[in-house]
């Protein structure tokens, strides 16, 4: 089966500083894949490379078999990949509904149309309303984003990535800054919104990683230290030394590294 995402021998340097030195990994369609590693391991850089914000120094990035390494973000999006951003990327003075509508308009191509079919616009409005319900903002969808709570804003970001309908969704630290209850709710939300799609997630919260992921890749010092099922990663001595250390989840996870 063609992988949804395949990175082969990926290298990235910033000037003389080498961040990645031959990173390879493969994500199957429908898989939930987490990328973990110590601060500065290059997890966000990896997402920037996959989503086209940065170009690799060498190596290939294949999305459903098509090489997209170095392609502009819009082409990568059109090839089937959507992402959120670690920093807040919403239109702050627009409502949740308006932000989601912007994301949905890009998906449908309506943003390019000079005139629009009324039926298409109605479908779009229904889709946005459904997404507002799913992210728990059914009653607060018309409030400007900058008046919503932090977790509500993060939920909108995930909703915007999900409403695009892309087959591969990248989420960069979707639960950063959340309390335990919010984190639990977000795990369910992410699971629901990415059902039947391929998810790649960067997270520091091991509870989230081990609850969500089918497979985990560990990055450290510019290389893949290990890639495998959660149990394999949990039991891997090299991973424990490189990253999990004494915080390694023994059974029920919850440690933040
Ligand atoms: N534009 C850039 N120019 C130079 N160095 C950069 C640039 N972007 C990132 N780096 C460096 O690349 C390395 C990896 O950074 P990155 O943010 O990808 O790590 P990370 O694993 O996501 O870290 P964290 O877990 O703290 O978010 C760091 O040493 C960082 O300083």
Describe this structure in words.
GO terms for molecular function: ATP binding. This is ABC transporter ATP-binding protein. Keywords: ATP-binding, Nucleotide-binding, Transport. This protein is an alpha/beta fold and 257 residues long. The chain contains nine helices and ten strands. The chain has a six-stranded mixed β-sheet, with helices on both faces. It has a four-stranded antiparallel β-sheet with strand order 2-1-4-5, with helices on one face. Strand 4 and strand 5 form a beta hairpin. Helix 3 packs across helix 4, helix 3 (96-108) packs parallel to helix 5 (150-163) and helix 5 (150-163) runs parallel beside helix 6 (180-193). The longest helix has 17 residues, at 118-134. The two termini are 34 Å apart. The model is unreliable at 250-257 (pLDDT under 50). Bound molecules: adenosine-5'-triphosphate (ATP). The site of adenosine-5'-triphosphate (ATP) has 10 residues, from helix 1.
Topology:
Layout: E1 5-14, E2 17-27, E3 32-36, H1 43-51, E4 58-63, E5 66-67, H2 73-78, E6 81-83, H3 96-108, H4 118-134, H5 150-163, E7 168-172, H6 180-193, E8 198-202, H7 206-212, E9 215-220, E10 223-228, H8 230-234, H9 237-244
Parallel strand pairs: 3-8, 3-9, 6-7, 7-8
Antiparallel strand pairs: 1-2, 1-4, 4-5, 9-10
Helix pairs in contact: 3-4, 3-5, 5-6
Bound molecules: adenosine-5'-triphosphate.
Adenosine-5'-triphosphate (ATP) binds next to helix 1.
């Amino acid at each position: 089966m063609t992988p949804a995402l395949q990175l082969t021998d990926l290298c990235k340097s910033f000037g003389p500083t080498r961040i990645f030195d031959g990173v390879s990994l493969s994500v199957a369609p429908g898989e939930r894949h987490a990328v973990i590693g110590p601060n500065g391991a290059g997890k966000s850089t990896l997402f920037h490379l996959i989503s086209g914000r940065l170009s690799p120094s060498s190596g290939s990035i294949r999305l459903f078999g098509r090489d997209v390494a170095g392609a502009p973000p819009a082409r990568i999006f059109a090839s089937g990949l959507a992402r959120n951003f670690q920093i807040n990327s919403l239109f702050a003075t627009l409502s949740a509904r308006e932000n989601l509508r912007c994301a949905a308009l890009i998906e449908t191509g309506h943003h390019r149309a000079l005139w629009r079919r009324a039926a298409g616009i109605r479908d779009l409005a229904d889709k946005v309303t459904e997404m507002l319900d799913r992210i728990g903002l059914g009653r607060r969808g018309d409030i400007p984003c900058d008046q919503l709570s932090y977790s509500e804003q993060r939920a909108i970001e995930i909703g915007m990535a999900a409403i695009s309908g892309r087959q591969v969704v990248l989420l960069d630290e979707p639960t950063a800054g959340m309390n335990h209850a919010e984190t639990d709710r977000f795990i369910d939300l992410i699971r629901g919104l990415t059902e039947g799609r391929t998810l790649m997630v960067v997270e520091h919260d091991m509870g989230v990683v081990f609850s969500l992921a089918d497979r985990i890749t560990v990055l450290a010092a510019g290389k893949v230290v290990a890639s495998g099922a959660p149990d394999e990663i949990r039991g891997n001595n090299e991973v424990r030394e490189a990253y999990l250390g004494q915080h390694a989840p023994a059974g029920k996870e919850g440690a933040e590294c």
